[in-house]
Amino acid sequence: MPAITIKPERLLADLHRLRAFGAYKTGVHRPTYSPDDMAARGWLVARMQEAGLSARMDGIGNIIGQNTAARRRLLVGSHSDTQNHAGWLDGAMGVIYGLEIARAFLEAGTPGGAGVDAAVFADEEAHFASFLGSRSAIGMLDEAEIDSARNLTTGETLRQALAGAGLAGLERRTIDPSRYLGYLEAHIEQGDDLEARGFNLGIVTSIVGIHQYRLRFSGVSNHAGTTRMAIRRDAGAALVSFAYAVNERFRQLAAERTVWTVGNIRLAPGQVSIIPNHAEMLLQVRDDDPAVLGRMRAALEHLVAETRQGGPCAVELEILAESEPHQMSRHFQDALGSAASRMAPGQWQRMPSGAGHDAQIIARVMPAAMLFIPSIGGISHHVDEDSSEADIVLGCQVLADACRLLLEETRQDN
């Protein structure tokens, strides 16, 4: 198979054009199903069609641009939605890689019947539900979940959002795994490991599981100036004590790369002169070992039981989501390694991903792998998120060559 040649100037131009949808300071604000998000998706459909792909959006907002001439195919993509007031490359870079590589195969004449389909998934950032689009694409999203899902920031129901985006009533399409050899996704690292070690590329070995919990504490409101400390049932104080206990217990149980975060705390009624009668916190735990995640959950449940027994406030534990870790295809990793060694010898490493990605969902139905490029300063989910153009171009070239290698291997079988 001939070399697959991407066009760096076109790649960067498309990436910057996508950046304009929802531009905010130096970053992007493009939450799922917002007008800017839907405008970006419409532009992506048009861009795929201009390239010669058969593309349309489905009822959850996913887009698949198909090379209809290909007999042997890979799926390459990511997500186009963003966190609120966040960075311009998270997800978007992988989407444009998919478009550019699919285009490059078409321009090479779909050599030997080999081609790439480009994928754009919806709501990877979980404005409504974790991995909404990729789970829908593999048949893991049912209508009952769509009925119950709400925007975590605005409270808007998912049904309302789909109707407002013009997607209500459209069919949700599932991916046929037999159509593809597998799935490849590229992403900025979202950390500083590559930069700190002086590497330009990272080949992902595994993607962490993410467990998310909500804890609610119930107490009694009273006057903050006249109620003795000894008789208080202060839900806010109970939450703070519990969060400290979680931190101490988790430190004893954590593996090398285990991380946990209390990302949101709310107190009611939220007045400085009133003792809180309600408090809640969101807790997230990440690791790539199911056994570690299991023991962290067991410790959390034990702390809840201890708190209930010791009082003075009631506590409830709600499990919001538990995505499991996934190992990336070793064969696909090796193809990425071969491409990286040819184009960037000595400039790459294998590494786990501490962030969740659509690849861990698609990996449930087909082989999958990921390629990272460095994030400048390790910054992500922030308007200062950035990567060098040289690394962006190199990553796309390596991913395109890995696609060539994987598709070339199967030529004799087809």
From TrEMBL:
Gene3D superfamilies per UniProt: 3.30.70.360, Zn peptidases
Protein's UniProt keywords contain Plastid: no
Cofactor dependency: Mn(2+)
Molecular functions (GO terms): hydrolase activity
Keyword Metal-binding: yes
Alphabetical UniProt keywords: Hydrolase, Manganese, Metal-binding
NCBIfam families registered for this protein in UniProt: hydantase
Self-association state and partner proteins as the record states: Homodimer.
Family: Belongs to the peptidase M20 family.
Protein's UniProt name: Zn-dependent hydrolase
Organism: Sinorhizobium medicae
Lineage: Bacteria, Pseudomonadati, Pseudomonadota, Alphaproteobacteria, Hyphomicrobiales
